[in-house]
Amino acid sequence: MEQGKVLVAPGDKHMVIKKVSGRYKVECFAGEKVNGHCPSVDVLFESVAREAGKDAVGVILTGMGYDGAKGLLAMKRKGAYTIGQDESSSVVYGMPKAAYNIGAVCKQLSLDKIPISIMEMLK
Q1: Would the pLDDT of 3 be above 90?
Q2: Whole-angstrom Cα distance, residue 87 to residue 108?
Q3: Which of 44, 71, 99, 117 is the most exposed place for a label (fewest CB within 10 A)?
Q4: Domain spans of the chain?
Q5: Which residues of 50-82 are buried (b: 16+ CB within 10 A; e: fewer)?
Q6: 3-class DSSP assignment, residue 2
Q7: Checking DSSP bridges between strand 23-29 and strand 107-109, what pairing results, if any?
Q8: Hey, how many other C-beta atoms are within 10 angstroms of the C-beta on 101?
Q9: Alpha carbon distance 96, 105 (integer Å)
Q10: Predicted local confidence at residue 123, as pLDDT
Q11: Residue 15 near residue 27 (C-beta atoms within 8 A)
Q12: Which residues contact 32 (CB under 8 A, 6 or more apart)?
């Protein structure tokens, strides 16, 4: 992983992070569907909880279903700052709602306020 670089999981592969010699690396691998998805947000977020803990920020945005909710909760329990998109700015409030309902969200914000909140938290 590098500052300023965006990584997207390829279709049909899960993505995880691992801390190796003080740096975060990304691994992608073929696997069974989790919550009906491959890639699964839960797989990624659970690896972030394990490897980065309190040094992470997790954001769950609009989407159907509940993929990502349990992983975001794992991140929060390890001390990560977690954000869920609010209902009014979501096209589909399924994923952020599932995360909010299980207590995985530290803050629930509109889409336009999420980057501001992240920047304030990182100061």
Answers
A1: no
A2: 9
A3: 117
A4: 14-122
A5: ebbeeebbbbbbbbeebbbbbbbbbbbebebbb
A6: coil
A7: unpaired
A8: 12
A9: 8
A10: 87
A11: yes
A12: 38
> How many whole angstroms separate alpha carbon 30 and alpha carbon 14?
6
Going by C-alpha positions, the residue among 101, 97, 53 that lies closest to residue 74 is 53
Helix, strand, coil percentages in the chain from 3-state DSSP, rounded to 5? 35, 25, 40
Residues in the chain: 123
| pLDDT tens readout for residues 95-113 | 999 999 999 999 999 999 9
The mean pLDDT of the chain is: 96
Whether pLDDT at 50 is above 90: yes
Structure tokens at 4: 């300023």
How far is Cα 119 from Cα 123, in angstroms, rounded to an integer? Answer: 6
Tens-digit pLDDT profile for residues 64-107:
999 999 999 999 999 999 999 999 999 999 999 999 999 999 99
Residue 119 one-letter amino acid = M
Q: Is 1 or 82 the better-scoring residue by pLDDT?
A: 82
Q: What is the CATH number of domain 14-122?
A: 3.40.50.180
pTM over 0.85: yes
- Collect all residues with Cβ–Cβ distance below 8 Å to 81 and sequence separation of at least 6: 56, 57, 58, 106, 118, 121
